Amino acid sequence: MDFFDTFLNMAVLRRSLPMLLDGLWLTLQLGAASIIAGLALGLVVALLGLYAVKPVRLLMRLYIDIFRSIPLLVLLIVIYYALPFLGLRLSSFASAMTALTLVSGAYTAEIFRAGIEAIPHGQFEAAEALGLNQRQTMFDVILPQAVRIVIPPLTNNSINVIKDTALASVVAMPDLLKQATQAQALTANPSPLIGAALIYIAFLWPLVLFVSYLERRYHGGRRA
Amino acid sequence: MSYVSIRDLHKYYGTYHALRGINLDIGKGEVVCVIGPSGSGKSTLIRCINRLEDFDSKSEIRVDGTPVVPGRALAKVRAEVGMVFQGFNLFPHLSVRDNVMLAPRRVRGTSRADAAKLADQLLARVGIAEQADKYPQHLSGGQQQRVAIARALAMEPQVLLFDEPTSALDPEMVGEVLDVMKSLAGTGVTMIVVTHEMGFAAQVADRVIFMDGGEVIETGTPQQVLEHPTESRTRNFLGAVLNH
Ligand SMILES: Nc1ncnc2c1ncn2[C@@H]1O[C@H](COP(=O)(O)OP(=O)(O)O)[C@@H](O)[C@H]1O
Ligand SMILES: [Mg+2]
């Protein structure tokens, strides 16, 4: 049994490539949609958690803690298999996007909170003393500075979201992993799985390098 | 007619009684220097005037007749009261010009072109027109504080609050900032300056206020307070500062 024939069989890979690319496209759509929705949700949760009235702040805290504690796979299965009993039936894509967004939003909220809290208090005071209202203070003064701080951890979180899209294959979404397992079954050869793994790596490795670069530059900037 | 009036001002940090019944009336265009030992409540006092600090609800501060209470009135007061901080607090993500333009643009709705013109005029007035495109962190401390003054002036404030504006500066840069402040005195803007620069107080102030332990101990002309203080606490403080 030849290693290449089994694990990197070019004929099999070529035959399954269209399936893998279909899966990749869905994976990227799910990843991008969940990342963007998670960012918006996280920003809102962070701002409410910092500045809303006490009960709302506590609610946001509760949301963050719960969705950082629950395993994503459990959440996904609850949404896909349990919610229909309440009459709420979501497609596999919608289920996966909901689960990924809820969890990503919780992590993103923590990242934004830390970024905002890292801005020196004097910046808030200078903005207030000039007569800027709370919204202007946040969007013109605080967030533009916080963004620099939060980009490395947000990129890290985005990497995690893209990796976690693979869980969607358990609710029968034909994402990259699901397509690879199906191609493997069709061809009776594991090469499509290896192909899928290589595609994940090819997409995520640059992001991983980007985070390292940002972290180095950020720390370098702080020292200067 | 007093422009800033402070009635029975009390401030608590938790249970700590930081301001113990301050009464002050400051006239339009008057220059008042506030002196006193560290921890005496000088910063707290001027931070109450634009309500960066909340204060006791039975106390009253009015600026141009408007009570400094949370809400719509506070926005009006803050637009009229500029503040210069010990640590500059410039916005590091904005160029020097954009630092000065931000408040007119956002609070007054001034057009970009008009705000830029105003910023360049003010930067010229504080002597740093040629630095307008740089970022604050590339300027010296003295230059940064002059930008901060220009930023405060951009709202055309009736009152300027200074909280030890030269205390964070290297000695050779103190003069350039004090010169800018001197040039503002007598232009009609009311100035309330917390400072340890006794020479500045003697030369520029209409009135000097000595604080200790959260109270105003003595107030009068620079000559009265700095040269002929009547209170022993004032004498002790001045003795310690001048022998320094
Ligand atoms: N945010 C704060 N929380 C608690 N105590 C404070 C706070 N700010 C100031 N104080 C206390 O209030 C007193 C007056 O402070 P401050 O107004 O800063 O004095 P000064 O400016 O004259 O040095 C000091 O004893 C200080 O420790
Ligand atoms: Mg102080």
UniProtKB/TrEMBL annotation, chain A:
Pfam families in alphabetical order: BPD_transp_1
GO molecular function: transmembrane transporter activity
Predominant location: membrane
Domain annotation ABC transmembrane type-1: ranges: 24-211
Keywords: Amino-acid transport, Cell membrane, Membrane, Transmembrane, Transmembrane helix, Transport
Gene Ontology cellular component terms for the protein in this record: ATP-binding cassette (ABC) transporter complex
Domain of life: Bacteria
Protein topology in the membrane: Multi-pass membrane protein
GO biological process, one term: amino acid transport
InterPro entries linked: AA_ABC_transptr_permease_3TM, ArtM/GltK/GlnP/TcyL/YhdX-like, MetI-like, MetI-like_sf
Record localization: Cell inner membrane; Cell membrane
Entries under SUPFAM superfamilies matching the protein: MetI-like
TM helices/strands, residue ranges: 24-50, 62-83, 193-214
Subunit and interaction comment: The complex is composed of two ATP-binding proteins (GltL), two transmembrane proteins (GltJ and GltK) and a solute-binding protein (GltI).
Recorded family membership: Belongs to the binding-protein-dependent transport system permease family. HisMQ subfamily.
Function per UniProt: Part of the ABC transporter complex GltIJKL involved in glutamate and aspartate uptake. Probably responsible for the translocation of the substrate across the membrane.
Protein name as catalogued: Glutamate/aspartate import permease protein GltK
Automatic annotation (TrEMBL), chain B:
Topological category with respect to the lipid bilayer: Peripheral membrane protein
Gene3D superfamilies: P-loop containing nucleotide triphosphate hydrolases (3.40.50.300)
Subcellular location field: Cell membrane
GO annotations of cellular component type: plasma membrane
Swiss-Prot/TrEMBL keywords: Amino-acid transport, ATP-binding, Cell membrane, Membrane, Nucleotide-binding, Transport
Listed Pfam families: ABC_tran
SUPFAM superfamilies assigned to the protein according to its UniProt record, in alphabetical order: P-loop containing nucleoside triphosphate hydrolases
Domain ABC transporter: start-end pairs: 4-238
CDD domains in the record: ABC_HisP_GlnQ
InterPro entries in UniProt: AAA+_ATPase, ABC_ATPase_HisP-typ, ABC_transporter-like_ATP-bd, ABC_transporter-like_CS, MetN_ABC_transporter-like, P-loop_NTPase
GO molecular function: ABC-type amino acid transporter activity; ATP binding; ATP hydrolysis activity
Family of this protein: Belongs to the ABC transporter superfamily.
Name of the protein: Polar amino acid transport system ATP-binding protein
